[in-house]
């Protein structure tokens, strides 16, 4: 993103997140019977499965993820791990740091590295939770899903997508 001020970056941060929340709420359909501790919805508004919401986080999955039982199981496990780690809160705090220090390239780098580290930690914990026998299958899920989209650094959502796919699969 280009220049600006804290005010314009604040407006962008709020606008991006409010717009995404509205798109999710308009397009979501409950996905029940999964035994998941968080509400799970199918949506066409997200490019990939994600966790969104600070106070009452929900998991949103794509139609494609919901249709494939292995991908759905991996996605739910991944997003639940993000929730257990509080990564949805860290995503919002990263966005806030970018708003306040939009002019500092080191803050942008720190935010990118923080997001990457969060994904690596989440992947490791997810594989531990799923079991070592699921590692290869989980890696295939990551490959399939990470090709579907890219995260916006100002969006306060966690997602299974992200950079460093080679490192994440290892």
Provide the descriptors you would attach to this structure in a database record.
single chain, 170 residues, alpha+beta, five-stranded mixed beta sheet
What would you say this structure looks like, in words?
The structure is a single chain. The chain has helices at residues 6-27, 63-67, 69-85, 87-100, 105-130, 135-146, 165-169; strands at residues 29-30, 40-42, 50-52, 58-61, 157-159. It is built from 7 helices and 5 strands, in the order αββββαααααβα. The chain is of the alpha+beta class and 170 residues long. The chain has a 5-stranded mixed sheet with strand order 1-2-4-3-5, with helices on both faces. It is globular and about 50 Å long. The mean pLDDT is 89.
Q: How is this structure best summarized?
A:
With 170 residues, the protein is α+β, with helices and mostly antiparallel strands.
> How much helix, percentage-wise, in residues?
55-70%
The percent range for strand residues is 5-15%
Major beta sheet, strand line-up: 1-2-4-3-5
**H/E series, N to C?**
HEEEEHHHHHEH
Output the number of helix runs. Answer: 7
Low-confidence stretches: none
The shape, in one word, is globular
> Using only CA atoms, what is the Rg?
16 Å
Task: Say how many strands there are.
Answer: 5
What do the pLDDT scores average to? 89
By helix and strand content, what is the structural category? alpha+beta
Distance between the termini: 31 Å
Largest sheet composition = 5 strands, mixed
Question: What's the topology here?
Answer:
Blueprint (H helix, E strand, L loop, with lengths): L5 H22 L1 E2 L9 E3 L7 E3 L5 E4 L1 H5 L1 H17 L1 H14 L4 H26 L4 H12 L10 E3 L5 H5 L1
Parallel strand pairs: 2-4
Antiparallel strand pairs: 1-2, 3-4, 3-5
């Amino acid at each position: 993103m280009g220049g600006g001020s804290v005010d314009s970056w604040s407006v962008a941060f709020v606008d991006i997140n409010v717009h995404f929340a509205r798109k999710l709420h308009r397009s979501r359909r409950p996905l029940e019977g999964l035994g998941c501790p968080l509400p799970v919805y199918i949506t066409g508004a997200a490019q990939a499965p994600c966790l969104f919401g600070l106070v009452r986080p929900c998991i949103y999955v794509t139609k494609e993820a919901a249709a494939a039982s292995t991908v759905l199981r991996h996605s739910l496990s991944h997003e639940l791990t993000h929730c257990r780690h509080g990564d949805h809160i860290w995503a919002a705090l990263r966005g806030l740091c970018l708003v306040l220090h939009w002019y500092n390239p080191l803050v942008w780098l720190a935010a990118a590295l923080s997001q990457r580290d969060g994904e690596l930690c989440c992947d490791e914990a997810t594989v531990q939770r799923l079991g070592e026998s699921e590692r290869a299958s989980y890696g295939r899920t990551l490959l399939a899903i990470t090709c579907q989209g890219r995260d916006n650094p100002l969006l306060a959502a966690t997602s299974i997508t992200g950079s460093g796919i080679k490192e994440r699969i290892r």
